[in-house]
User: Fold this.
Amino acid sequence: MSSCITYKDTNYLQHPNIDVVAIKDTIRFKDYTLQPGDRLSIVVHSLNEETNKLFESNENNETTGGSGVANELFTYKIDDDGNLNFPYFGKIPAIDKTLREVKTDLEERAKTQFGVCYFRVNLSNGYFSVIGEGGTGRYSMVKEKLNIFEALAISGDLTSLADRKKIKIMRQTKVGTMVTVFDVRSQDIMHSEFYYVQPNDVIYVQRIPAQFFGITTWSTLLGTVTTTISLIVLGVSLSKYF
Assistant:
């Protein structure tokens, strides 16, 4: 019975109770802030054809989904000092800025040299990883506000043997790597700062430690009990002949 997994162990968005942890923090979504090593895809549009030609390679790379060497050639890396080195503009402070703030900064700088331009700035290394009982792999962030449930859906959802009580997220911050453990079954997860996945997050899903026999439903439990009783009866019967 202790090995049986019930709906309380697997259902999401449950009301906090004795088994489901209540998360008291109420934190709104915060835009991702750039860190050293991040790569940006920057596309420039202008009414001036000459300006468009100057940055044409950037747009071609985005259209063809550049990767590998091409991705490194046509994306712009935030250096160790937190600067973005963009052609014709020189070094631009980018650390701790959001993509929207970098976009605004570039458009303001472009006015004096190229006139009015529109910049499209995206994070080229927008990935998260999942390991353990949640579909091990590295996945692309399909949108900016990607929550934990959407991330797990992309990875194939959690298995019935996943310990939903102790999901771990490893996140890179300015002060180092931070590891947080939370109960993904709780409805209150929506109020946590880890409800939204950020680039470079690693989601670790461990296996339920008490799960040994692979019993996940009542029918499986009944089958296991019946088989066990049958083996005991068979053993007792055979013992009469030895």
The radius of gyration is 26 Å. The first helix runs from residue 7 to 10. The helical segments are 7-10, 49-54, 56-63, 68-74, 99-114, 148-155, 218-239. DSSP finds seven helices and twelve strands in the chain.
